[in-house]
Amino acid sequence: MDQIEILKKLNGIFNQVLHDPAIVLKSETTASDVEGWDSLTHVQLIFAIEKEFKIRFSALEIQQFANVGDICQKIQERQGSRAC
Amino acid sequence: MLDSDDLNMIVARIEAKNPLHAKKIKKHLKTQDSIFFERLTDFLGAYKAFLKKQGQGLSDALDCYLRLVAEVTLDHVRFLETGRYANQNFEEVKENVYDQPDIMDSYMKGLLLSQFFWRQHYAVFSFFIEALPSFQSMVENYLEIGCGHGLYLSQALKIFPKANIDVVDISASSLAMARLFTLSERPRYIQADIHDVQESEKYDFITLGEVLEHVQDPKKILAKVNALLKPQGLLFVTAPANAPAKDHLYLFHNEQEIKDMILKAGLNIVKDIHVYAEDVDSTRAQELKVSSLYAALAQKKG
Ligand SMILES: C[S@@+](CC[C@H](N)C(=O)[O-])C[C@H]1O[C@@H](n2cnc3c(N)ncnc32)[C@H](O)[C@@H]1O
Question: Residue A44: inside a domain, yes or no?
Answer without folding.
Answer: yes
